[in-house]
Specification:
With 309 residues, this protein is an all-alpha fold. Helices cover 74% and strands 0% of the residues.
Length: 309
């Protein structure tokens, strides 16, 4: 197990290097410069001074190695072009926790709702309740998060006046209701579909029939035999969904004016803020790889037959 974990961790290094290289050269291949989106044309001497300050006057290959060496030697992602005097590391540390909190709460909502709907539908397949849960899952899967966020603002904030239209006061604030629902509805529907399929499949296995024959109650069979075996596929979907929720909150944060890293990533792309784009991309890539490793390790806890040698 230790060898497997070490191998996976070491494999992250060339993967991160490849992601950094692709992101760096794709950004510099895009026409324009970071100073084109300032709102008004800058004098030529000002542009030259800014390029010299941030090293953009050097050849692209030299910029690449300077940036890469700064990350390797000092962990320095550079300074933001659009937020003078603020480093990318400070920007990530300030705003990423908000996106992470929002994503985790949305996933708690998604997992709780998805498991409940999936279990109800899987235990009673082809029943009216199953058809209802399947219908709700289809709606959740087919509706993008930014549409749910917009509808949530219109219905709950403007028509009913139950919650504010946007902003952020923490995960226990009423301002978190709309973004949590918007981000968690899609993963909840996906988890519900996978849970239902896994429960239906597990319910037809021989060990479930044997448990029923021994006189174990239906509730005990579902909790002790059906659900643990169905959780293997659900864990996979939940891990991928968590990554997609945290990394896919760009539009929801922008619509609802939430100061998470996703919102600043959108503005940095339009402003060609290269260090912020690179730092955010590397952060999200690390999160994806770590979550994939955690999911693989979780398999061994759910199924003792799975071992990594």
């Amino acid at each position: 197990m230790r060898t497997y974990i070490l191998r996976r961790v070491l494999l992250m290094i060339p993967t991160m290097l490849a992601i950094f290289t692709i992101t760096f050269f794709l950004m510099h291949a895009t026409p324009g410069s970071p100073w084109d989106s300032t709102g008004r044309p800058l004098p030529l001497h000002v542009i030259e001074s800014l390029n010299e300050k941030y090293g953009l006057d050097k050849p692209v290959l030299e910029q690449y190695f300077i940036f890469l060496w700064g990350i390797i030697s000092r962990g320095d992602l550079g300074d933001s072009y659009t937020r003078a005097g603020q480093s990318v590391t400070d920007l990530l540390m300030q705003h990423f926790p908000i996106s992470l909190q929002l994503g985790l709460v949305a996933m708690v909502f998604a997992v709780a709702g998805g498991l409940t709907l999936g279990l109800i539908g899987g235990i009673q397949p082809n029943s009216p309740v199953d058809y209802l849960t399947t219908f709700l899952s289809v709606i959740g899967i087919s509706t993008p998060s930014y549409v749910v966020a917009t509808l949530g603002v219109i219905v709950f904030a403007l028509w009913l006046n139950w919650v504010p239209t946007g902003g952020w006061d923490g995960i226990f604030s009423e301002r978190a209701v709309i973004p949590v629902i918007a981000l968690g509805l899609g993963p909840m529907a996906t988890i519900a579909r996978y849970t239902r399929s896994a429960v239906v499949e597990a319910s037809s296995q021989e060990y479930v029939r044997t448990a029923h024959a021994k006189g174990v109650s239906r509730r005990g069979v579902n909790l002790r035999h059906v659900l643990p075996n169905a959780l293997i596929s659900v864990v996979t979907v939940s891990g991928v969904s968590l990554v997609s929720v945290v990394t896919g909150s760009f539009f929801v944060e922008s619509i609802l004016n939430i100061p998470g890293i996703g919102r600043y990533f959108v503005t940095s792309v339009s402003a060609r803020d290269y260090p912020v784009i690179i730092g955010t991309t590397l952060l999200y890539a690390t999160l994806v790889m770590v979550m994939n490793l955690v999911i693989d390790l979780a398999y061994t806890a759910l199924d003792p037959r799975i071992r990594y040698e």
